[in-house]
Amino acid sequence: MYYSPLFLQTPSVLEGAFYQNDLGRLHRSIAFKDLAAKIPSRLHSKSGRGRKPFLKVEGGIALLILKHYTGLSDEILIDRLNTDWCMQYFCGVQLNARRIKDKNLVSWWRGYIGRHLDIKELQSVLIGFWKPYMEQTHVTMMDATVYESNIRYPTDVRLLWESITKVYQLIQDKRKIFKLAVAAVITTSIRRITWDTRETAVRANARTKSSANNY
Asked: What DSSP letter does each residue of 125-180 carry, written as one string?
């Protein structure tokens, strides 16, 4: 049987080799201990009863980060964790000859951390840890795709139709307030504009479908 000399080295040598690769550099950039301090420990660490878990809270957070970093499924991630010493170091565990058989371990930690983690405290911990390395801290940048909104693509026809609808509603509201009769000229004009707008929308949709069919 072939033995890798790396596994025969002292823990300090292994740790040095770990921090020289990508996972090690990623591990250095995350405040695992500070994040874990915001999440209550599992019952075993308090009472000592039951089976000792493979991972501490830091390891659970690291496992979820590995999930997104690697893009692996929960089951394949556990298989990789059983055989990849770098992933084990990342999660703060050394399995040696042991194996994690629980394929739901990732899902369990996802639910546990999701129930106890306060996102505001998470942000404050990460900001405090990363601030010395930040530049232009007066600038705020956000990804708009994470916000739900009712904004749809503003075509000219839609904007014109909504403007007509809004103006007509304002006229109706003012009529009721001042108890005015409907002016035939205004009503006729609005109806004509409304009809023209609808015809324009129909023609625009027809041109769009025709162009799509040509392609």
From this structure: HHHHHHGGG-S-TT-----GGGS--------HHHHHHHHHHHHHHHHHHHHHHHTP
* Confidence (pLDDT) at 15: 78
Q: Are 80 and 87 in contact (CB under 8 A)?
A: yes
pLDDT above 50 for 132: yes
- Give the span between the Cα atoms of 191 and 188, in whole angstroms: 5
Q: Phi first, then psi: what are they for 143, rounded to 5°?
A: -90, 115
- 11 token code pair: 């823990």
Other Cβ atoms within 10 Å of 106 Cβ, number: 21
Judged by DSSP in three states, 27 sits in helix
Q: How many residues would you count in the chain? A: 215
Write down the pTM of the prediction: 0.56
pLDDT in tens, 56-114: 889 999 999 999 999 999 899 999 999 888 898 899 888 888 888 888 899 999 989 88
